[in-house]
Amino acid sequence: MEFFNQLLSRDFRPHGFCYLWDPRIVWLHVISDGLITLSYYCIPIVLVYFIRKNRDLPFNRIFWMFGAFILACGTTHLMEIWNVWHGSYLLAGVIKAITAAVSVITAAILIPLVTKVISLPGRMDLQGREITERAQAEEALKESLNASEHALKELADQKFALDQHAIVAVTDVHGTITYVNEKFCAISQYPQEELIGRNHRILNSGYHSKDFFQQMNHTIANGKVWRGEIKNRAKDGSIYWVDTTVVPSVSAEGKPRQYVAIRADITERKRAEEALQESLATSETALKELADQKFALDQHAIVAVTDVQGTITYVNDKFCTISQYSENELIGQNHRILNSGYHPKEFFQQMYHTIANGKVWYGEIKNRAKDGSIYWVDTTIVPFVEADGKPRQYVAIRADITERKSAGEALAAQTMELSRSQQALEAQSLMLQSVLDSMAEGLVAADEQGKFLIWNRAAERIVGYGPADLPAEEWSEHYGNYLPDGVTPMPTEQLPLVRAIRGEASSTEIFLRNPKVAEGTWIEASGSPLKDKGGVVRGGVVAFRDITKRKADERQIQELNDELEHRVGERTAQLEAANKELEAFSYSVSHDLRAPLRHISGFSQLLMEEFGSTLEPSAQQYLERIQAGTQKMGQLVDELLNLARVGRHALHLQPTQLNAMVAEVIAILQPNCEGRQVEWMIADLPAVACDPVLVKQIFQNLLANALKFTRPRARAVIEVSHKEVSHKEEDGQPVFMVRDNGVGFSMKYVDKLFGVFQRLHRSEEFEGTGIGLVTVQRIVRKHGGQVWAEGELDKGAAFYFTLGMGKQTVSKINAATAGGRS
Amino acid sequence: MNSGKLDILLVEDNQNDMDLALHALRREKLANNIFVARDGEEALDFIFCRGVFAHRSFERPPKLVLLDLKLPKVDGMEVLKQIKSDARTKTIPVVIMTSSKEERDLAAGYNLGANSYIQKPVDFEQFRETVKSVGLYWLVINQPPVVEDSQHLAGTAHGSH
Predict the structure, then answer these.
(1) How far is residue A202's CA from residue A585's CA, in Å, rounded to a whole number?
(2) Phi–psi pair at A491, nearest 5 degrees
(3) What is the pTM of this model?
(4) What is the ipTM of this complex?
(5) Does B130 touch chain A (CB under 8 A)?
(6) Does A590 contact chain B (CB < 8 Å)?
(7) Which residues does A29 contact at the CB level (< 8 Å), separation at least 6?
């Protein structure tokens, strides 16, 4: 306390006394000392600032020393001002002593430091400097040691500057940290005391390989500066990047003594770089993707780019292909070149309005190609918008939908057509329905699956049921369809509708038995397949009607027929029996009647021959009459038998030459002509188909009659001829005629001519039985012809007959015969 | 009637017809060697040498058979059929003489091998003419097959036993 009081003692005369209180001198000293003090105080502040900013500044202890030294100097000058008025010379002396101590220490530290500082290259050109240059610098530094204060000051400045912006650390040759600046502490987050004495590896982030550090150690161990970017780990584990320059301080013998590492924080840059790298990689992928997309787009889309005025600036190949314009023809053209005129103005106005507002437009556009052909494109227009929100250009991507469109147009037309025809169809179907319902016949149609399409009213009335949604197999049971035996259900495959669906037309009678119809109902059903235009069966239709009454009628008719047949059979049997009897009768007649005649004839003859001479003439005459009677009786019997035989005789038609036949008959009749003059006038007669055995009898009878009835004529003329008549009944038939000039007959009796046993003459005049013409008539009729007679008493008679055959028939028979013979 | 040479077998059931036929044949001197069978059975027994005619020999067949059709027991057609279907008798001429002129009888007769078919005329004069013609034709004009050789051969063969 004593000392302190002495320090501030005012026992001494203030220094102003020395200046004689001359204000000029006083103020000169005061102001100068004040300025110096101010300056000296400023310098350490600046230095401290410098060191703080440059933590990796080497030798920062000397900077502290400089600071203390300058501060002390400043304080001495401040004391100079104080002592002008106060005279605290002890205090001033103490301060001077401190200043001196500090100065001496600083100088003592500085001197060995100078060599080091000289080897330290300037921070800005550390990289390129050669060792020789460094030597030169050392030399220069040495030279400047003379002006040490200036040099120190510069050094101090440099260190300050270094500390201000660099991360500085010093390690010994083992890597043990001997110095770190504030920036080092700040970035590593370690306080200085945690770093000093620790190995630099404390900051290793593990990012770099061993080789990296080996290479670094190798470089600096060889006294070379190493530079690189190191990724370090801070105390809190966060990562930071430093751009590092390690400068070995080499001893006189050339071995590194320690290493000064100056670092700059490049974490931000690194991050930026990494981000850049990353974003570069991303953009590359994006770009590649974009290129791919463009390629893909070009491959299948029609792409065009236009500017805001609608001028085409880009088109792809597909655009050119569809529009038929070349790229050159399109670029620079307005898009209107493709306008087909199909869309209204409003359509495009709406489109431009949309894209001009930066919105995407979708739509289908009908365009016109270069050759005038029309094509449709599905279009998407994307405006590319500037930063100000205004479109810069438009990209239009289109797809060709011409086919779909034309298909669509066709479809629309078809749809219209369809709806029209549907209406027509509805009208038709309505009409059809009423037609169907007014039908008396039942009509049922089904598709190929057996689903009923039509079932008219009559069908329901006849069958008793409406359409049932049943499989075909159950139809017979449901509707009660039976085979005509009335008990066997109709097999499915025999049902007309089933057969129709199978493509077969059929007609069947079905017995119907179900609770809705009267017992014993019969229907007749006709089925036929329903075919489409191609002839493919699409179903079947069956029309049917109630035939119950018809069936009943039929049954009745059948019964009647059966009865009739039975009766006919009976009659036939009776007839046959009668015929047999008749035959037996005629047989008996020929045998049994003729035999007694023969006996009468024989024995009366013998009586005459053997005993005639002894008999009275009248008895002889009686015997002769017996003879004549038997002869007449024999003739009658023979002719009657013949007539019966004609009736039984079966016709055997064959072509016959009538002239030959007539000649034969005339030859047979020749004995009747003896002693008479007979003229035969035989015309050329045609060949006819007839039974020659019978027809011969016609001529025999007619010619015999002609001969007989011309007997009174001195000259008999008998004519046989034919003519062809053309009146209706005998059209084209030959009419044969036998005419004579005999006694003739009165036409009064013409009807009696053809009666059995009818005679127009007495038998004394003309013999005869009255059977001949009956036989003729029977033969003619058997041939299907007619016979008639014309006569005049005492003039003659004419007999006409036909044989019921046309000339054509005859020709045919001739041809057949001729063919047969050849 | 001797059992030697036989000319005619007359098959006739009716007495009147038989008498008239024999009268006609006699007049023409054709009735010397004649045998009358009164029904079909007798006719067959005679022809085939059996029954009462067993003594007869096939070696002496009649030269002519005059056959009526309407016969008792076995009718004329059956007689004809048996004669014509046996090799030993089929060469014997058979003339059908009947009242019937029925076609079916005619056809059947000829089909069975009858040599002629004659309807007996009602008129006796005509009947006589017919019988005369038939007898003359078959017994005098017609040449029968050579039977002597076969008879001779048969006899020789018999004798050798």
Answers:
(1) 166
(2) -60, 140
(3) 0.40
(4) 0.77
(5) no
(6) yes
(7) A15, A19, A80, A81, A84
